[in-house]
Protein 1
Amino acid sequence: MSLQAILSKHHLSAHKSLGQNFLADNNIVQKIIRLAGDLSDKNVLEIGPGPGSLTQELLAAHPLSLTAVERDERFLPVLQELSEDHQTPFSVISGDALKQNLPELANAPRTIVANLPYNVATPLLIRWLEDIHQHGAGVYSSLTLMFQKEVAERIVAAPDCRDYGRLSVITQWLCEVQYGFDIPPQAFIPAPKITSTVIRLVPRPSPLAPADKKSLEIILAAAFGQRRKMLRSALKTLGNADIWLERAQIDPTRRAETLSVTEFCTLAREFAQCPN
C-alpha cells in the first residue's frame, strides 16, 4: 500500500514537533535497502518507522527479524497491520529510541536501517557510537541512516574541509563511512525545507588508532571549540599543550581542521600520559 493511501486510511499526518517527514518515493526506499546490503542473515532495527514505507520493504527483504522503535503511538495499529502481511518475525517497541538499549532488543548479527527523525538524529548516532566503543564492532554489522545533508557532510568530512569536526573524527575513528546519496525534499510528505542524505557506517574491527575515548573527546572539544586558533592557543586551557604537541610531532601553529583522525589520537594519548 502506498504511503498516501496508508495516511488517508488511518487519518494520519506528520507532527512537526517529532521531526516527522515520511518518505513517499518507493524508488528511494529501494535504494536505501540496496545500500544496506544483504539483510537475509541480519536482525534489523528500524528507528521511527512512522507509517511504514521503509518498514514494508525491510520486511520484503526477509531479514532474520525486524524490530522497530516508534515513539508516536498513532502508528502502532498501522505497523501491526504490516506484521500480518509478512512472515518475517516483526516486533514494535513503543517508546523513545534515545531511551532504548538497542543491543538488548535484537540478537547479533544486528544492523540498523532508519530514516531518522531530524531532531534526534545526531544524539542517536552518538549513542550508537558509544555502543560500538563499549561493545566492539560486533554490536552492529552496519548502520544505514538518513540525516539532514549538512549533518551527513559533517560525518563524512575529511581534514582541510570546513565540515570536518568533532563528529567527523569520532565517527571515522570507530567506523568506515560511506556517503550514499541525497534525497530531495519532494520525496517526503510533508516536504522538508532541506535535502536529506543517506550514509552507511560499518564499525571497524578496532578503532582506527589507539586512544582513550574520554581524552580524545576532551582534545576535540578544545581544538574545535576555537577552530580558527592555532592548536597552541586552542589547547592551552587544558594545560601543557606545547609538550603534548611536541611529543605528538604536531606543529603547534596548525589548526584543528588540518589534523587527521590518527593525529588526533596521537595527541589524545600524549594528553592522557602527560601530567598538566
Protein 2
Amino acid sequence: MKYQNPVIRGMYPDPSMCRYKDKYYMVCSTFQYFPGVPVFESTDMINWKQIGHCLTRPSQIALHKVNSSGGVFAPTIRCHEGRFYMVTTNDTYHENFYVYTDDIYGEWSEPITVEQDGIDPSLFFEDGKTYFISNGTGANGLGCIQMCEIDIETGKKLTPSRELWQGTGGRFLESPHLYRFGEYYYLVEAEGGTEYGHMVNYARSKSIWGPYDPYPGNPVLTNRNLGGYLLQAAGHGDIVEDANGNWWFCHLAFRQIDKWLTFHHLGRETCIEPLQWQDDGWFTIGVNATAPLEVELPDSISFAPQQLSYEKTFETLSQKLDWIYLRTPEKENYRFEPDSLSLAGTAVTLDEADSPTCAFVRQTEFDLTLDCTVQPNGQEAGITFYIDELHHYEIVTQTAPDGKTCLFVRQTIGCVSHDFEKVTVAGDTASIHVVADAIQYHFYLSADGRQIHLGDAYTRYLSSEVAGGFTGVMIGLYAVNTASEKIWSRFSGLKISHQE
C-alpha cells in the first residue's frame, strides 16, 4: 500500500507521538496561536484525526502580545501509567513546563515548570524515575543535549543538569528524545536548522548518562541534498512502535512551491516514515535515509484510504478543533452559528503583534478555491491570507456612505502596504471568490453570475524565506472597527475546497 507525505498537512510542525494501547497520539507546535498544541489520534499511523488541544485556557499559556513565531515551541507527548504528559517551551518567556491529563479527550492540567534552560524539552520514564531532557549550552559554550531527573509531581529538579551529547557538529542542535530499546539507550536529535539543511542524527549508550556513541551513518534522515525535490527540511521527529511490531518515525518537513522555486508558505508539516532495525542494533529511517513524498509499505501493513480531498464549510469545521486565534482572543467578539460567523471588530488590526478579531483555519494545500459572502455592516471585514503582521493579503469589504458595499485587495509585504482599485456593488453584502495555486493567489468578486477579477498576489511573499519565522499561512475571517460602538459583520456561505 502507498500513502502520501505529509500525513498532517499545513502548519503542524515539530511533531511528537506516543502509543497508548492500540491507538497513537500526536502533538505539534502552535507558537502565537490559541488554543495551543493540537492533539491528534490515529489507529493506523497514516490517518490522523484531531481530538483536542492541550492548552485551552489563558492560565496555561501566556501569549499576550508575544512576538510572531514566539510562544509555544516544540512539544513532546508521552503516556506513563495511563497518564498523558505534554511538555513544551514558551520561548518568549524562556519557560519549560508540562501539563497532564488522565482523559486524552478532556482538559489538561495547569502548567508545572521545570528550572532547566534550553528548548524542545522531552520526558523519559524508567524504574520509577522521570528524566527531563532539552537542548542547552555545554560547559565549553557549545550546544548540547542536557538532562536532569525531576519529581514528576512538582517539576522540581532532583539532580543537576548534565550534558549527554554535543551532536555531530551541525548548527542548532535541537529536538532531543531519549528511548530505551533493548540493552541500549538511544538519543535522537535534529541539527542543521529547521530549513533546507535539516537532518536527524542519533547516538546510543548502555548507560543513561552516557557516553553516547554516534550512529556511523548519520544523518539517519535528511533531504538536504535532494535539489529540485518538492519535500524539503526533513528533521525533528519522534519514534513509536505500533501494536503490530512495526516501527515509525514522525518528523517535520515542508513542500516548496515548485521544483526550482525554493519558497514554502504552508508551514512545516508532519510526515511519517518507516523505521527499520539492523542486526547490529542500529536503525535506519525512510528510503535511503531520505523522506519521499510517496511511501510504499509492505503488504503486511494496512491502513484506511488516505483522504486528501476536502470541502470545508461552517457546517463541517469544528469551532473547538479547527478555528484558532492570534494570542489571547476576546471571545465575546465571536459568534458562531451553524451556517455563519459574526465578528465584532476592535481597533486592533492585522498589522499589529496583538489579538485582532480574526478566526483562522490553516491553509493545507497549494491548490484550493474559497468562496464566502461578507456583510460588513459599517466596519472593515474580509478574508486574509496571513503569515505574520508584516506579511498578509486581504480581500477587504467596507460599507460605502450610500449603503452600498465596496471591496478591494490589500497586500502588505514588509514595510509596504498597497490597496488596489475599489469596486462597488449594490446591496450590503459582497461574495468573494479566491483561487489559489502554488505560485499565486487570484482574487475575485462574484456578481451576477460572473467572476470580476480584483487582483493577484504571489505566494512567495508569504513564505518563510521572505517573512522569516516558523509558521505558515492561515486563512482568516477578520473585522476591524475604530468606532466605540460594537458592530457585527457576518460571514456566510464559506466553502474552502481542494481536489486531489
